[in-house]
Amino acid sequence: MWNFYMKGLLHDMTYFLPQNDAQNLYLKVLSSSLEHFLVRYSAATPSEARTSQIRSDLYALLLCASDLLWPACLSAFQFMGRKYEMAENLATSCISKIHSSCCFLLADLVVLTAPICELFKVFKNGFPQARLSVRTKYESVSPWLPWIRRELFSEFCQRQIISNVSVWLAVKTCISWGLPNPAAVIQAYTEHNCTLSILLIMQAENSSSEEDSISLCVPDSAKIKLAYSLLMLLICYDNHSHLQDILLPVIEKTNGWQEFDSSTTNKSISERSWWYRGLAKTLQSFFVGVFEEVIPVWLDVSKKCSNPEGLKSFNTLKDSLRNQIVCVCEKDPLNSMQDEFEPSEDIISFVCLRKVLESMHRNIISLPQALKLFLLTLDLHISNYIPEIQSVHQSLPLQILLSGAIDFLRNDQFVANMSDKTKAMSVITTNALESILHKEEFFFINENYTKIVTVLLSSIHANFKDLRKEKVSEAMHVKEIKDEILEITVHKLLQQPEGNDIILYLHQILLQNEAWIQKSLGIPGMLSSNIVIDPLSLSPLFSDCCDTQKKEKEFTSSKEIKISSQGIVIL
């Protein structure tokens, strides 16, 4: 009954109070309840006939306490009772009291139910071997948990939690409440070298090849959203090796290296693989900055070229663009042109293309370091191990940026708010970019034009090539700096335009796929079924394509529901 009461209390607190207040109040109630049980059972003197009953009572009480402890904790460290990794505050003080009460209740269970007289005959002088008095200093788990939750902690004296268990603890901590804690979400997806992120990405790819009726309705839009969200999280985590960990297995499995070959540059973004489209989407903010600098030039050029009276000489156009376009070579073809001229399409194309490339070159510094290193790593991998893949101008990062710029210019949302003149300049720029992406020779007749474009392309490629010379220090996530790294990641992610949406989406993924994650990590269920669980309902795979069934959020009695583990739910 106590378990039912606590579950109902948690439901009511969540419904009527803000989450932080509800959690603090729940923590205090759970702590005081266990202290009350401790007082009662410590004073108990059961008869031999009642010994089995008190054994069952105490075991059920501790088993329920281990499940009720999840909503009270903000991190897996608190659940495991690692005192040296918990900051000193009122909440951690209550957490410590809960662990202490449970340890004493376990001691009561042993003392009240063990055959003390028989044990004394065997251990008259204590244990045969002395125990380390400093053992508790190195414990990774509070002593009572390995005895009660043996399915999670197989070795009592272990100093390091098993990898799959550490991931599962991070997931359970994250989904204990309805509203997400950004730090807990990031911790769940990055725990143990992004194990969970790799599982989800690979399962998303596996669903494409499964020949069942459910996976046939899986749209690429859901997979793209998953890939984009995970990539953005790991880019903010600032560790390029994690980006490799989650994408390289998918690329290898699907022979995705063809996406980086120059022969595929004529593909539209809608024809690309879902993971490539998710990767390309991470560059959207970069191109927003690039074309914020280009659009004023478009407006100026279109204005000058459409006014015959104002365009009496080429100097008019030169003067208007002098402050916006910085020449990167000594001999500028614009200065060598005659004063009287007819503004041909080649000249306008060159001016637009040159501005785009210069803006891209200038804004590369705004690209996250982890993303740049990841693109460079892909380039090196192809050149060393897959020589049959030939990128445009022998530079994979350059090819991705040029293709991304073309896709950005063709985006309906980008073009929708443009005037007709600006749209015409956008088409001219797109054609110019396509000409250097798809053809071996540039379309410019003037040789100096070609030289400038070549210099700009080489400069962009050099930005990535120079990263090889830098000594990139791998972030060592020791416990002294883990919290700082997590805090910085949260700050970076929430600063992104879609940062809040990404956190909410990834949290929902964990909620919907709790059973699948548990089975995929090899975590067995509870040893006893005498525990109140929240009723689970299987949501259809990718609810934006399939029919949805809404789950009523109310406190109901326990019921067993069989959950299929064949696929994951991706919203």
Automatic annotation (TrEMBL):
It comes from the Eukaryota. InterPro entries: DUF4495. PANTHER family: SIMILAR TO KIAA0825 PROTEIN. This is Uncharacterized protein KIAA0825. The lineage of its organism: Eukaryota, Metazoa, Ecdysozoa, Arthropoda, Chelicerata.
